[in-house]
Amino acid sequence: MIAQTHSGEPDMNRSVEPSDLTLVQESMVQAAILAPSPDNNQPWKFKFSDQGVDVFLDPSRSLPSDEASMFDLTAIGAAVENAILGAAEYGCISEITCRDLDDATLQGQLPVASITIRPGGVPDPLFDAIESRCTCRKPYASGPLDTEVIEALNHSISSLPSVQVDWITSAAEKKQFGKLIAMTDSLRFRTEAFHAELFRQLRFKPSEVQATRDGLDVRTLELPFGVTTMLRTLKSWTVMQLVHRLRLTPLLTGPSKIAVQKSGAVAVVSVPAASTENFLIGGRAIQRIWLKAAQAGLSMHPLGSLPIFLLQSQPNPAFEKTIEIARRETSNLVPELGNRVIQLAFRVGKSGPPTERSIRRQVSSVMVQ
Ligand SMILES: Cc1cc2nc3c(=O)[nH]c(=O)nc-3n(C[C@H](O)[C@H](O)[C@H](O)COP(=O)(O)O)c2cc1C
Asked: C-alpha distances in angstroms, 266 versus 11, 131, 167, 261?
């Protein structure tokens, strides 16, 4: 797979001068680590190779809620895309080789993606948005997105034709999609392992954020005053179960439902089937759309629970009925999906900037020695 920058024909026989190679590789990794990841788990490791960068999955950072490593691969695909853009800044074109997930790749022994660079590329304007792109969980303006903006976002992934984006734009359909998100968010809150995962990833104090440089800084959640304190009490699974028993779960799922309903649009990103390569390419596409949206002054907020529960191969039997309803209603709402796999959905729209940005581990911590 040769990465498409808006370049001329790559010269496959030339290689990057050894004196420039390290500089380009460093630029690639610096860009890669700014990619988004589920709960900011940053599930990657990098190694400089003879002619590029190898990208490894770091299994110690995977989340129990991930299914078929779809979210880790989304993050790695996004990191690969950033690295490609970083290489293109130095006039390099990238070739990506993907290795299927097996014992060796899942245990981080072999790279899941190898990026080989050659002279022959030109900078891509999307590079400039790498630092400003972020998740924004504030409320968005509910006015519709301009058709030209949606077309520009679609166009940003024209070089990755296996990825499809379906847009939900009408008020009634956004409302319906918000209900589906609340439905699957509720399953997430009812699963003990996912509850533990959430509180393992949450960083309540700035000192914890600085110490780990990963996870969900609670300030990025844009919670109303006092709700952060309430959230702390929900760390106990016993208290969380009580919330469910008292039928108070809608208090937890309601804000996202309304946020989706009141956004400019919902983007549903899908790939033809579940596979390592498809998810990597899907991750690359997601990053390109997100960068393009950032350049257009639009905010984006991933909605992860629906894609994860729809992909579960062995769901909790108690959830099967709800998942089936969610699957049927999603198909009715987005018939263009057919048998495709939803990799991620987003609400998209105009908003103020996030109150706080999430930080990353240092480059030195993500290099394989
Ligand atoms: C595959 C994937 C799934 C995500 N799912 C959610 C989600 O369900 N809810 C949410 O608020 N953020 C979600 N996020 C956003 C991450 O929490 C965010 O990317 C990470 O904290 C880093 O922050 P940044 O995007 O601002 O750089 C997801 C991101 C990725 C890549």
From this structure: 40, 23, 6, 9
User: Would strands 299-303 and 202-203 be described as parallel, antiparallel, or unpaired?
Assistant: unpaired
pLDDT tens-place string over residues 331-340 = 999 999 999 9
C-alpha 7 – ligand 1 centre gap (Å): 31
Task: Report phi then psi at 225, rounded to 5.
Answer: -50, 135
Strands (E), 123-260: 164-168, 202-203, 216-217
Calpha distance 202→296 (Å, rounded): 30
Q: Which of 33, 34, 39 to mutate to test the pocket of ligand 1 (most atoms within 8 A of CB)?
A: 39
Chain segment 140-189, per-residue pLDDT in tens:
998 999 999 999 999 999 999 999 999 999 999 999 999 999 999 999 99
Task: Determine if the pTM surpasses 0.85.
Answer: yes
Tell me which residues have their CB closer than 6 angstroms to ligand 1. Answer: 36-40, 71, 74-75, 134-135, 137, 216, 301-305, 344, 358
Buried b / exposed e across 173-184, counting CB within 10 Å, b at 16+? bbebbbebbbbb
Residue nearest to atom 10 of ligand 1 (CA): 302
Cα Rg of the chain (Å, integer): 20
Mutation choice for ligand 1 from 34, 69, 82, 135, CB with most ligand atoms inside 8 A? 135
The helix (H) or strand (E) run that includes residue 113 is: strand 113-119
Beta strand 216-217 with 202-203 is: parallel
Residues above pLDDT 70, as percent of the chain: 96
Q: Sketch out the chain's domains with CATH numbers.
A: 2-133 (3.40.109.10), 147-349 (3.40.109)
Separation CA 287–CA 283 (nearest Å): 6
